[in-house]
Fold this sequence. Notes:
Order of helices and strands of chain C: HHHHHHHHHHHHHH
Number of strands of chain C: 0
Strand order of the largest sheet of chain B: 1-2-3
Number of strands of chain B: 8
Distance between the termini of chain C: 38 Å
Shape of chain C: globular
Largest sheet of chain B: 3 strands, antiparallel
Number of domains of chain C: 1
Oligomer: heterotrimer
Helix content of chain B: 40-55%
Largest sheet of chain C: none
Strand content of chain B: 5-15%
Number of helices of chain B: 15
Amino acid sequence: MKSAEEIFDILKKKFGDAVLSLDKDTPVEQIISIDPLKINLISKYLRENPELQFDSLMCLSGVDDANGIKVKDAEGNEIIEGGTLSVYYNLHSVSLKHKITLKVSTPRNDPQIESLEKIWKSANWHEREAFDLIGIKFLNHPDLRRILMPYDWDEFTEEISRHPLRKDYKNPEFYQGMKVPY
Amino acid sequence: MALKTEHMVLNMGPQHPSTHGVLRLELEIEGELVNKVTPHLGYLHRCFEKHAEAMQYNQVVPYTDRLDYLASIGNNFGYALAVEKLMGIQVPERVEYIRVIMAELQRIASHLVAIGSNGADIGALTPFLYLFRDREHILSIIEETCGARMLYNYIWIGGLSHDIHPDFVRKTKEFVNYFKPTIVELDNLLSFNKIFIERTANIGILPVDTAINFGASGPTLRGSGIKFDLRRDDPYSIYDRFDFEIPVGKGLMGTVGDCWDRYNVRIREMEQSLRIIEQAVDNIPEGDVQSAIPKRIKPPKGTVYKRVENPRGELGYFIISDGTVNPFRVKVRAPSFVNLEVLGELCKGNLVADIIAILGSIDIVLGEVDR
Amino acid sequence: MYQYFYDLTGNTIIATLIVAVFPLVNVLLVALIGVYLERKVSAWIQDRIGPNRTGPLGLFQTVADFLKMLQKEDATSTEIDSKLYNIAPVLVFTGSFAAYAAIPFSSKLIGSEADVGIFYVLAISSLVVGGILMAGWASNNKYSMLGAMRSAAQIISYEIPTAIIVLSIVMFTGTLSLDKISDMQTASFWNWNIFGGAELGLTKFLMIPFMFIGFLIIFISTLAEVNRTPFDIPEAESELVAGYFTEYCGMKWAMFMLSEYGNMFAVSAIVSILFFGGYHSPIGYLGNSIGVEWLIPFEQAFWFLAKGWFFILVQMWLRWTLPRLRVDQLMSLCWKYLIPYAFVNLIIIGIISLL
């Protein structure tokens, strides 16, 4: 059983700059921020290190941080430019019974994160969901398709209505000839 | 010269009697043998997470009912706990006890449906109706308390929507006494039926490391033989005060982690739930159930991940608060969603009839798979 | 029966028509009562009430359903092979109701007193397989197709143990005529084939255990032949939606249902003729004791129906109690257990008959 600080120290020692910070401001959770392109290496270490043994990925949540600048596009829709999208990983060790939350942030205009599908199979559908609803691309994911939304959602809708959980999402007028806001 | 052969693609669902809702499975079959299963989700997607962002914290509670509609109390419970953790609310003892009793009653009701439909998929329709008869007793107990039979909206942030009915304790005890013999009846009718064992033992074996790696939880994980129950391993509410066991799959009829084990874990879990109810129902302290409900729910900035042991597994709420009255992000880690992913692994090389048995033993509710 | 009506009317055509309509009426009545009973019995078993709105005790429920079926639109998919699709229900229905022609309901009430009665019944009921395969193939539906394949495999496999047991009875009694087989078991239940036949002696007592085994085998295999739980995999609704008749509706679907219930009674009748004395009373006739000769055929019909419906009730009881087997388990039950046992049983009965 290790606390978040201890885990952070272990990771910092091992990976240096790829481990960005330990966020203690939040009232209940302590969050370690990680470089999005190194997350797979760090996760593998977290799973395989005998002191840590994070054998289970409980939850993977994509979040639109909405920390960019709000501007109006050509059609008068308010969109967010710049800023980041984030993914939170809630890890848990069944054998050692400790928990940790990891966070990676990636630029909004080109969101790319390494996939963890190879490390925890449960990441597969969670990543598909984050891709589907937030629009984060997971590199090296074997099957990155939409999961909850229709597979052809992209073909019929505009850029702004692709990923519903983004804060600047706007309902499309029509989908396959059907009126969407009713 | 060898004849050119093709695999047949069989589309099971979204309208199919035993996909338990609107799940669509794409089966690649060779005769009756299944080579590959691809689940397609999203037919029941109701934008819960998007809705939650537009609601105030207390307004989200009714929406959580509709996630796992067979275990609504558990969903309310998890959400309330998450927000309470974020706000640092301490709820009164009476509320804790009532919550636990309700959650355990709900667990029994939910397992009854799971077991019944697992049996019905295999062809035993009669146990299904017997179990629904038993479930009716639980539903009427809850109905008397909060007026609803399925979507209760009962556990609120910091309290409960209604205090318990004056008859509640007596009726719950009556139910416990009534239900104990029916478990034996169920065992005789279905669990140890030779044909049922033939159909479920040694089918869909889920090894424990695969189960953990896939993030499986609840009876699906415990069926593989690992003692992991959040009520014990990450205690929430007042579960640490009660004495109960965690039933695990032992491979009694076949291999550890087969369909029969997962089925049996559910039955044994109902017995343990009865134990918890028996211990809790006599000790409900006096008090007010709404005193701790905050007038205005406006949690501080921060994130929280709270998980509870729902009948189907680990239900987690990941909530980000930006300090306003609306949640910034609510993500639900739905147990069925994660457990369903294992299906593709379990079904390889089984017969079409086994897919039904395996799906029934994983026990999914599409309401929370698609959210 | 033909002779009787010919004497009565003096017209060959009318007599033939009456005799030909007789099995049809029978099968319709059986299906009507069978469907109602199935609902009531399943309701009693499952702690429900069952149909209770249409008429007293819901007695007219099946009639109402039948009327609904007649009125329904015959909706078909555009991609079907319409010839085969339309022939299939007729063929299945024919197969099941033609069997009634040779079944003796009483000593006077037989469609045809054919000397090869049991052989004819076995042969004509195989038509059903053809119909089922046609239905499955013509529907152009994968579920129907799978159901039809399962069904064909199942019915053909289970015909073998049935035929072997029938053969052992034929060896024992020395006749293929269902009427004669029934007649040999007259007077008392002690003379039934299951109790070793009418001849007293050592052979009778030696025969009893093997007759019981034979009865069990033929009961199980006929259960499978009519696709009843636990052998209802061809139409397993939780796997294959409805099996080979998934794409059928209205009257065509009703014909499949009619033939299912018709078959149920037919196999029950065969079992009771072969082992339980057919139409003969187990305790003697009231007509004989009070000297009213014409009462006897009616008593016989009563006993025959009672035996037939008893076995139908057992079939229903099994259906609502047991889960269903898987397709491979079903096949292994037939080929690995029933057929070898049936063969051994055949040989032993043959040897005992020779003694």
